[in-house]
Amino acid sequence: MNGSNDNAICILDSGDLLLLVTYSNDRIVFVVSSHAMSLASPIWKKTLKPPFPKLVSRIDGDDDLQDKQVDFSEDNGEALLLLLRIAHLQFSKVPSTLTFESLLDVAILYDKYDCVGLVGPWLSLWLSNEETQSKEQGYEEWLFIAWVFGREKTFKELATKLTHEVKINAKGDCLTSTGEIFPSQMPPDIIESILDIRQATVKALLNVLYDYVDRFESNKETICRENSKECDALVYGSLLRGLQEADLWPRKSSKTVHISVQELASKLNSLNIFIYPQDRRRHSSSSHYNCNWAERKDLVANTLSSIPDPVLESHSRHMQIQSKK
Fold it and tell me: What DSSP string describes 257-283?
């Protein structure tokens, strides 16, 4: 078989295997070495054994290859070619930088075929903008990239950030901070962990809020420290009015609050609670400053600081293994 044509990319002239692939939106074949592929991936070592299924027609009249064809058309062809270049020691054809989309495609494929160890020499270059890009909106799939390549610090920081930012819709689906459905390519159990922690934190914040409302609803005694019923009426009324404006009244449960933990905390901190003015005519030394639920910001801050780590032990174990490959 000589060189390449429009229907084939010859990665190795002496290749003994044809891969049916989707490359640049076309169905073509890669000519490869089954031995090189078996060395690159334990998955391929188990599966790339004759007899190979016959899937494509004759290429350049090479009858010897007709029964050595395997279908890889469901994989991303560009990422597969990159992996095969490395497996066949064609290092000069391996790029030193990758776009986010290409990096994600590579991570998906390397995870599927368990060949992360191949990319060691290029990994630091491919992940050069990891620190900044992983924290930007629209790059939530860095969770998967970090999980595949054993980047535990990035994984933990991003997962923690997302517990504060994710929302849900009426169906309970996880949404990004911009309201988009969360990407499907994620490590196992991480979205469930983030959503569980989000709901528990929303519940804790609602408890802070409604416990304070209950002080007025369940207590017939005057709450104002200056024993002013007028002050209580002003605080209670402005509180409920503020909750209505924040869409938190009538009371809501953690399952019916769709906004993020971050947004809910901001709403609680921003409540405008009015207090009874000091009577200057009587030269009173009394103050109603503490009647405006001044401690609520501390209670909210304490709740946020107590948010558990969404990273499970299974995630940490996996990444520790990946980082050593």
Answer: --S-HHHHHHHHHT-----PPP-GGGT
